[in-house]
Structure formats: structure tokens, C-alpha cells
Fold each of these.
Amino acid sequence: MKKKIGVLVMSYGTPKSLDDVEAYYTHIRRGNPPAPEQLKELKDRYEAIVGGVFPLRENTDRQVEGIQAELDRLELPDAEFVCYQGLKHAHPFIEDGVRNMAADGIAEAVGIVLAPHYSTMSVGSYIKRAKETAEETGVKMSFIESYHLHPKLIEAFSKRVSAKLDAFVESGAPRDEVKVLFSAHSLPERILSIGDPYRDQLLETSEAVAAAAGVTNWQFTWQSAGRTAEPWLGPDVLDTMKELSEKEVRYMLVSPLGFVSDHLEVLYDLDIEAQDVAAELDVRLMRIDSLNTDPLYMQTIADCIVTECKKGA
Ligand code: FEC
């Protein structure tokens, strides 16, 4: 009989419905309920994207199915992988995922986050929670911390950048006049003082994708900074767009490399908020398509899992 290896696929999580936004936001705020105006503002953002539908849930479901299919296709002689979902801020939580594995008799598992870059505040906190529950339940777990330079990930992103640059050219824009803006979720500036690799990994991905797509006219910028009093990493994409437009840049291609799925931070922050700013500035803004279930991305994850298992064998 083949040995069953659990795969804990972790993702951010999204509310089930508009009624669930308050509980979700309270969880993000570590148990502190949001003020009524903060709650309204977040609900308005969800309502603005496809009328209050929460695409991240279905996208994560599909990604987990895609990863399972990719792992099944490998047909390893001695091992069989079984994927479980664990979400950071929604059901099934990370802890539920690990407990579900233990309840199914899984003794060994690998954990991976659907976010390619490591930060103590993002991927690190997913892993910490999974590790704690794994120790409690006796599941032997190892983790993939980052995969930001995996060749298939770089290929998937660079194909998307090239496709949108072609679309710019077809619509009459000179290719080398399109500024490619690689972006990722901002984090509080204090991560830099603790030697966090997040920013450097993002710059490495940007450089690799630019090289693969033959792009020299690019820069990195942050997006979606939290609404807290402390300083967050900048410049923000909206400020970058304003600054570039003052320098007569008229074509911009935003390429969110820190995200792998369509969700609020892409569909609202870029497709609505940044597009509104682009219209005010008379700038033509496009965005690369999200990876979602791109086979190259599914293969990236499957390959990381198998490589991690071989390390432990
Ligand atoms: O579509 C959806 O329903 C969920 C979209 C979503 C994704 C996402 C990814 C990341 N976040 C990261 C860091 C922070 C930090 C805070 C924070 C707050 C929010 C809020 C919402 C939200 N995030 Fe998020 N994030 C998404 C949504 N995020 C909503 C609360 C309102 C607001 O501030 O806009 C601040 C709170 C804290 O201190 O914890 C920090 C990072 C990522 C990318 C990596 C990952 O996916 O884990 C980093 C998707």
C-alpha cells in the first residue's frame, strides 16, 4: 500500500458572505472588532467587485483541486498525496486543516502557502500556526517557505507580462514606452529592521520576470497598505502612477507578483482604485491576468512539494 502524505495548502481566506465580513475583519485585527465606518468601507469594497461575490474562496478551491490533480498525475510508486485546505482568516482555518489530516490518520505532511514570497508577518505566521497544531496532534510536518524564483513561476508571470505588452502594442503604444510596475502587498516598515527577506525576494522575482520577458522599463512598487497608524512600505502604486505621469509616462502595466489569485486586493485595489487614478491622470493602465489555476503555477507547487518530500526521505 502506498504511504499517504498530507499536503496542507494554505491561503488567505475570504468571508462567506457580506454578513460574514465583520467576523473576518475582526479575525484579521486579532480579535479587535472594526469601527462601524471601517466595516462599512470594507463591505463597500467587496460590493464594488462583482457585486459582493467573494472570488477568492472559489479560486482557492480550484487551485487546491488543480494541485491535487497535478500530484496525482505524478503517480509516485510509494507515496500518495492528499491535499487539505487551511485558511489564515476563514474556515477551514489552518488549525482545522491540520486536525483534519490527523483525524484521517495522516502521520506525515508538507505545508505550502499560496503566496510565493516569505515574510515573518505573512508566510511565517501561517507556518507558525500549522506547526503548533501539528505538534499538538502528532503530525510530522515540514514546510516550503518560499518559491519566488521557481522557473515555472517565472515563466508563468513573464508570459502574462509579454501578453499584455503585446496588447499595448496592438492598441498603438510603443512597447518600450510601457512602464511595467511590479507590485506586491505592502507590510509595516518595521519588517526591514528584523532582516525580513520579503522585499529582497520580491525584487528578485521582479528582476527574473523582467529578464524573461525582455523588459528593461520597469520598477517595483507596493500596494494595498493596511489602514493602521504605523508606517508601511512605500511608495504605493497610486503615488508611483502620479509621479510617473508627471514625467510624461502614459502607458503602465501593473503586474502584481505577490498575489496568485483574483481577489479583493487585485479586483478592487488595482482594477477599480488604480484604474480611477489612471483615468484622472489620463494614463492607460493594464494589469496582467492573475495566475489562478495556470498549469505552470500548479506544477510549481507540485514540484515544491515533491522536492520537499525527497529532502525528508
Ligand atoms: O479577497 C479577499 O477576500 C481577501 C483579499 C486579501 C488578500 C490579502 C493578502 C495579504 N495581506 C497581507 C498583509 C496584511 C496585513 C494587514 C492586512 C489586512 C487586510 C484587510 C483585508 C485584507 N488584508 Fe491582507 N489580504 C487581503 C485582504 N493584510 C480585507 C483588512 C482591511 C485592510 O487593511 O484593507 C493588516 C492587519 C494585520 O496587521 O494583520 C499586514 C499580505 C498578503 C499577501 C500574502 C498572503 O496572501 O498571505 C502580506 C489576498
Amino acid sequence: WKTLDDMDLTGKRVLVRVDINVPMEDGHVTDTTRIDRIVPTVRDVLAAGGIPILMAHYGRPKGKVVPEMSLSHVVPTLSDILDQPIAFIDGNYGDRIAALQAGDIALLENLRFNPGEEANDAGFAQRLASLGDVYVNDAFSTAHRAHASTEALAKLLPACAGRLMQEELSALEAALGTPERPVVAIVGGAKVSTKLDLLGNLVEKVNHLVIGGGMANTFLAAQGIGVGKSLAEHEMANTARDIIAKAKTTGCEIILPRDIVVAKEFKENAQHQTVAAGACPEDQMILDAGPTTVDYIKGVLKDAKTLIMNGPLGVFELAPFHKATFDVLDEIARQTKAGELVSVAGGGDTVAAVNASGHEGDFTYISTAGGAFLEWMEGKTLPGVAALEG
Ligand code: 3PG
């Protein structure tokens, strides 16, 4: 795919697909990360003499106009971050676009207000194409959706990747495509069923796969290890055993908790104890991995060159069950800062855990993507990326 450096943008209207699907409370943006990360592309388009016309979705309005999901709510924050007024265009595209001048930045209303967006409708894509001369996709985090603005449109105009898209793709390539080995993957989260394809792909690609969180309980239970009242998907036992068997053939070491922190209640500061995996009392649940497990993971990390993380090791939102996750994050941060490890993390929960641990600046790369990061880790081709390849 091409980049901004390959395009002549002078005097051109540049349609830039961005992902500014940011968390909001009471109409105010509460986390600006995704907006901050599109700044280089917008600046570079302006510097090259182009007029950026930003296109994005917000929420899932399902083809209807839902005022709370209007991108107008994002305009004040966007304008602050880009340090200039934004021309917000909420319909009647033609006239407003024609009035734009060099130096202006425009933002179109939520594309998903139009049913043609999610339907990847050729007519809607054509209408968007008529507004610009060049198409830039800077929305890696929406690239798993084959929508009009991510897929069909890319084929109608000269197209390229924006700076954030470039950055995401090269970080992910460095982590799983052609990584320096050994590679460690840490995968956590509640359910094996949502991360099945991902685990199947990872055992083929990484040297060590640490499984944490509720998913680890499912794997322990599948091996006949008692997990008490823990969250576990017992119906996934066969699948978990298949993944363990596949890992043996690929030479991937699967690392499960060796000791566990258990409690009777799922709440902050619940009375708890650390026991060996296999010694979970019947009336208790596993809420974190224990220190022996953490030490083992740290040992594996010490020899590793690359780390990819998606999902916490325990219930990091409830102290003290954040301990295993935070201790491992401390070690990843230390090794990354020392230049010993390339570390990449992505996904909503993971980024929340990294931020809560205070290590947001210490990873080599933190992806802005949730669903797209998962699909990419599953080894899938993302339609938004494939469309740029032409
Ligand atoms: C995200 O927040 O992961 C992206 O903006 C995609 O949103 P979607 O899951 O509603 O397509």
C-alpha cells in the first residue's frame, strides 16, 4: 500500500477515514487517545497543501440518525487538539465541501447515520468519493469492518494509508509477522469462546503463550483441575484440550497459572488466600494468578525478544487482584525501557490495565484498536487494509 509520501496532495480535497469512536460521558470526551493519534496525518495533509475532510463513525446507530451519537459532540475536543476550528458538515455535503479552502479541516457527520455505510453500499461510497480527490485510511481500529468508508471507497479514489495506519501495521508486523524470537504472547480475558481463533493462530506463531484470567480457568478445568466456583466455560473443555495438543506439535509452551489467588466473594479487598493451582476450595473462585506464576512468567520474559499482550491475568479492576497483571506489566516496562524487549499491547481491557498500572508510555507500541487488534491476532485479513493493497 501507498503512504502520504506517495501522493500529490497540493490543492486536493483529501477524504481521511479516521476512528474517533472515543469514550464519552454526558456529551464530553473522557479519553482523547484516538483523537491525539490522528494528529500527524491531519498535519501532514495540511502541510502538503491538502484539505483534510475527516470521515468517521460513532457508536452503532444502525443506519438511523441518533442525536446522542452525533460527531458534533466530538468537535470541541477535536478542535482543541488540532488547534483550529473544524467545519462540521452534517448533511448537504456538496455545498459545504465546495466552500472549503486551503488550511480548513472538515468533519462529516457520523457515517453510520446512513445505512449505506455498514452495508458497504456502492452508491454511498460513490457519493463520498464525489466529495474528494484522494482517499486516506487512518483507521486501523475500524479496518476489520468492510464498510463503505473503509472498503468500497478505497477502490474509487487514489488511496493510501495514513500515519497511524502505517504505525499500527508496522508495529503489528514486528510483533507477529517477522518478530525477533523468542516471542511471548499473554492472552487473558473472560472467555475462551471469544478468543478461540486467536489462541489457535498464536500457538503456531509464538514460542510461549501465557493464558490468564477466566480463560485460564477453562484450561485448568479441561485438564481435570478443580476450579471451585470460578468463571469457566466447561463446555469448551474439548477445545481447550485441542489447543494444548496443537501447541505440543508446534513447540509452543502454554503457560497456565501454577498458583492462584482465591476468594469467596467477587469484590474489592475480598478476603483471599494464595494456593497451588488444583487446591481451589469448592466454595471459592480464582481471581488472580499467584506470585510463583508471576516469577515463572518473568523468567520467560527475561529471555524473550518480543511480547504481545491482549488481556489481563486477573481481575485487575478489583484490588488486590490486580497484582499479577501489574507485576508482569512492571517487568515488561522495565525490559522495554532497557531496550531488551519489543512490547506491543492492544484491546480495551489491556490498555485500561496498562494505563491503570502507570505504564502507558513504557510499551514499544500500544494499539488504538480493540476488535481489529483481535482479528489481526487471529491472522485474519482486515478488509480495510486489503482494500488499500488494491
Ligand atoms: C472500535 O471502537 O473498536 C471501532 O471504532 C469499531 O467499532 P465497531 O465495533 O462498532 O465497528
